[in-house]
Amino acid sequence: xxxxxxxxxxxxxxxxxxxxxxxxxxxxxxxxxxxxxxxxxxxxxxxxxxxxxxxxxxxxxxxxxxxxxxxxxxxxxxxxxxxxxxxxxxxxxxxxxxxxxxxxxxxxxxxxxxxxxxxxxxxxxxxxxxxxxxxxxxxxxxxxxxxxxxxxxxxxxxxxxxxxxxxxxxxxxxxxxxxxxxxxxxxxxxxxxxxxxxxxxxxxxxxxxxxxxxxxxxxxxxxxxxxxxxxxxxxxxxxxxxxxxxxxxxxxxxxxxxxxxxxxxxxxxxxxxxxxxxxxxxxxxxxxxxxxxxxxxxxxxxxxxxxxxxxxxxxxxxxxxxxxxxxxxxxxxxxxxxxxxxxxxxxxxxxxxxxxxxxxxxxxxxxxxxxxxxxxxxxxxx
Length: 382
Known about the structure:
This protein is an all-alpha fold.
């Protein structure tokens, strides 16, 4: 190997990387604790970035609809205020529409639940009459009531301090959450009002310290990430609204109970890809089972019919190929995201996997074209 300046520079960076990797390997616990603390400090800013992305999706469309010029200074503040009013208005409308339905549902369950328990008791008595060995087994179960009472007394005597400390920690968590929300909200407003300036500064910083090719490729990837996430979330929200409206209309036509509550519930749970609507189905079937078991059976039939209609006709046209991810990889993304980050992971991992899938597909096609270039066309002389 020839030891020129370029080779020496590469060896120097290789040695530095090896030393850093060894030090990080021996001190991984300290580095992990530092990363956790750093993430805690940056949580309000990260939360503000997420809020800025949510507000930016409707704000971008509102700017195109407003009859103002792009050079107008009022365009950005007005569109930002309208987007915030739009998002907050949807949340407030859902709360004021759903909460009365929830209270009415709880009151109806309070009246119907004793009758439901009575019917279960009668069925259990018939079962015990037909199978007396089940009743003998239940009667043979012995409970040490003295030990049970001693544990209750011990909890009451020693658990008061634990309850007090839990109350204090819960109050501190609420205060911290409110502070994080307020800081994130202000940070999101600053990002949206000065997004062009921030974008220009970020590009200048990259072009100053990175090669031109790396800068251009990074900007292309960031643009792909934004387009994928915005298209996915906008399409997913629109599809959820359509599905919830369909359920409300159909359940109202069949005069089934809790039509509005179940429609809103399915609209919210349908934001979770693949499995979300089934969560709303389970809750809706349980609510109707408390009133009339036949209503629950009819609801299940309606659910599967509307689910097939939505999955085969509505979803492909509304969401379409905005994600650009095959169905099998959507299932993989939802499974991995749900196991690592819960419901948030199910939402985030689909566009993340879509971005990775697009980049990998481009890299594979580029590599194959280098290995097997297309044959050159022969020019026919006249």
